[in-house]
């Protein structure tokens, strides 16, 4: 019996189901979380299904969260999507439920929960939720809004189907979702468009990108710079892929200073594995896309040195 069978059996047992995702959500976090919530609401209208986790930081066009009292968690099933480790779960009340399910596509470094379904080969957690629906298509109902959310999550985490995690299966799943009744053109436009202030920040990123001879890149964005451009940290996600459009860049880090002084670090790569770097610095993620934190400039320099070493090692392996 597969873990997906176990998950469906547990869903059927509970009257109240509360679905969480990670802090600072991206389209896949919201797509998988609320896409699953929409499927379960349509499939089990007698159940109480909630989506929680606080502000969605500029992604209100995808979905909004609900407010629930602590008492709602009593005897409830909690499902967490797209979240590799428990400290990143948005709203720590996830632990108040009776049972906990983890559904994720990141490396399973922390297998929290009573049931764990992790598929690191999936392009996104939204793809996994769609796989869950397709496995039990005769028992579950896919609404048009659920399809919109899941499609948005897949598009977001695959970089519009450009990233290596995009497989033929990803495209097959996306094709099924695209056949549902929602405005994919409008959704893609909302996912892609940026404000004028973020566009100006993009120019700053290109102008201030530091790249060494081995293709290791670094961009430092101070809190003062964010204030000058009138940008909040969540908006910087749009500029993270930009260094990768440059042919000389092999792996890179975007270091964004927070109001408290520490740096939020977004790591990306075209080949060198960088999630081990992230793990050493209070983070984690995929081999080619990860996040970390640096307490100060000393740790920023340390992380960049590790990116440089990863690029050197990768080039050496290719040569050999």
Automatic annotation (TrEMBL):
> What Gene3D superfamilies does the record point to?
3.10.310.30, inorganic pyrophosphatase (n-terminal core)
Q: Which PANTHER family match?
A: BIFUNCTIONAL OLIGORIBONUCLEASE AND PAP PHOSPHATASE NRNA
Know the name of this protein?
Phosphoesterase RecJ protein
The signal sequence is none
Which organism encodes this protein? Candidatus Enterococcus clewellii
GO molecular function terms attached to this record: nucleic acid binding
Q: Which stretches make up the DHHA1 domain?
A: 243-312
Please report the stretch or stretches of sequence annotated as the DDH domain. Answer: 17-154
- In terms of domain of life, where is this protein from? Bacteria
InterPro entries membership: DDH_dom (IPR001667), DHH_sf (IPR038763), DHHA1_dom (IPR003156), Oligoribo/pAp-PDE_c-di-AMP_PDE (IPR051319)
């Amino acid at each position: 019996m597969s873990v997906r069978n176990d998950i469906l059996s547990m869903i059927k047992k509970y009257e109240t189901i509360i679905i969480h995702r990670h802090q600072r959500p991206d389209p896949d976090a919201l797509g998988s979380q609320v896409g699953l919530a929409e499927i379960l609401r349509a499939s089990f209208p007698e159940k109480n299904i909630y989506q929680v986790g606080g502000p969605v930081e500029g992604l209100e066009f995808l979905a909004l969260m609900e407010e629930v009292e602590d008492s709602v968690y009593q005897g409830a099933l909690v499902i967490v999507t797209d979240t590799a480790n428990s400290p990143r779960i948005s709203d720590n009340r996830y632990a108040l439920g009776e049972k906990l399910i983890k559904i994720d596509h990141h490396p399973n470094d922390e297998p929290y929960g009573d049931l764990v379904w992790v598929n690191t080969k999936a392009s996104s957690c939204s793809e996994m939720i769609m796989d869950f629906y397709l496995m039990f298509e005769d028992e579950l109902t896919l609404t048009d809004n659920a399809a919109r959310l899941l499609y948005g999550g897949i598009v977001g985490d695959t970089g519009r189907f450009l990233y290596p995690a995009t497989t033929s299966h990803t495209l097959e799943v996306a094709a099924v979702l695209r056949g549902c009744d929602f405005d994919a053109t409008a959704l893609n436009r909302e996912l892609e468009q940026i404000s004028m202030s973020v566009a100006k920040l993009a120019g700053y990123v290109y102008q201030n990108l530091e790249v060494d001879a081995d293709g290791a890149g670094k961009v430092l964005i101070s809190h003062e710079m964010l204030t000058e451009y009138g940008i909040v940290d969540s908006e910087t996600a749009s500029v993270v892929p930009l260094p990768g459009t440059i042919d000389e860049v092999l792996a890179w880090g975007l270091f964004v200073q927070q109001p408290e002084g520490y740096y939020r670090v977004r790591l990306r790569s075209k080949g060198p594995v960088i999630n081990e770097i992230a793990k050493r610095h209070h983070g984690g993620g995929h081999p080619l896309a990860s996040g970390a934190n640096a307490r100060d400039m000393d740790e920023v320099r340390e992380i960049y040195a590790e990116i440089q070493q990863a690029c050197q090692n990768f080039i050496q392996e290719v040569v050999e």
